[in-house]
Specification:
With 281 residues, the protein is of the alpha+beta class. The chain is 32% helix and 19% strand. It contains seven helices and 13 strands. Helix 2 runs antiparallel to helix 3. The N and C termini lie far apart (49 Å).
């Protein structure tokens, strides 16, 4: 059926339920409880979970498109369940997360990666570089006639719809390649020394410097230097690597937390979200 959903909405690529995990408990009743650090201006400001992490019409199909399933339906389960899982893990001090919640957390990580501005930009560029021909006739013996012998760029409708469809398909793969990594969880007890998040909530570190700015590289995913960082909230961060970790769950030393914050500080554009104002930024 045609996509009749209201267009040009505030589509949140950082769900509000996810962002609420980065609020200092002392500020939970404030209208703007989050600290926002602009990477271009290096300025701090106070924000609410609803005022950041969104773009208008980000998940809109091209007008008039027939849609079997809208991205909202793909996101809904994760957005509903993630806050519940996070609160459960916090109450249990993260005990049992591997057996009970690892699969869901990796599914959620893939969802966050696929709905991000970076992934959509990558897919759009890939689709813009596609070349097509239009079939004009099918004759005897399945002989196909085409409109040209020189392939040409696809129309804007194709590019837009294929990009959104690719996002949905990526999410439906579940953990996919992330299952090939070993995962641990590192946590902090002090909001004065927190994990943070940002425009791109999952960062990749390794010897392939462009792996976070291009489609996932097969080489990077098999390299023993590659590390994936995904803060779940200010208290905890999932860490993925090719090699097995000595400890599955452990308190993070200040040096590791500082290092992770530095990874989110690395890009030249975008922002970082924190429960506190970090003076060292």
């Amino acid at each position: 059926m045609p996509d009749n959903r209201e267009r040009d909405r505030k589509d949140h690529y950082l769900p509000r339920g996810f962002l609420k995990g980065f609020i200092d408990p002392a500020n939970k009743d404030l209208a703007k409880p989050l600290w926002h650090f602009d990477l271009e201006t290096t300025a701090w400001s106070r924000e609410s979970p609803g005022s950041i992490g969104w773009e208008r019409g980000m998940y809109d199909y091209h007008p008039g498109t027939n849609v079997l399933e809208h991205p909202d339906e793909v996101f809904e389960r994760f957005e509903r369940e993630f806050p519940l899982v996070r609160e459960y893990l916090l109450r249990r001090n993260f005990k049992g997360w591997v057996k009970q919640h690892k699969h869901f957390l990796l599914e959620f990580a893939q969802m966050m990666r696929a709905r991000s501005p970076l992934f959509l930009q990558q897919q759009t560029a890939q689709n813009e570089n596609t070349r097509i021909m239009t079939v004009t006739s099918v004759g005897p013996g399945n002989q196909v006639g085409v409109d040209t012998t020189v392939p040409y760029p696809p129309p804007a409708r194709f590019i837009r719809n294929r990009t959104i469809t690719a996002m949905r398909e990526e999410i439906k793969k579940g953990p996919d390649w992330m299952e090939n990594f070993h995962w641990c969880l590192r946590y902090t007890r002090s909001v004065a020394d927190p994990f943070v998040t940002g425009t791109q909530p999952i960062v990749v570190e390794g010897r392939y410097p462009n792996s976070n700015d291009a489609p996932v590289l097969e080489d990077a995913l098999n390299d023993h230097n590659t590390i994936i960082w995904f803060p779940l909230c200010w208290q905890a961060c999932l860490v993925g690597a090719v090699d097995r970790f000595d400890e599955g769950t452990a308190e993070a030393p200040p040096s590791l937390i500082s290092h992770v914050r530095g990874m989110f500080r690395r890009p030249s554009a975008g922002y970082v979200i924190s429960p506190i104002k970090i003076e060292s930024f």
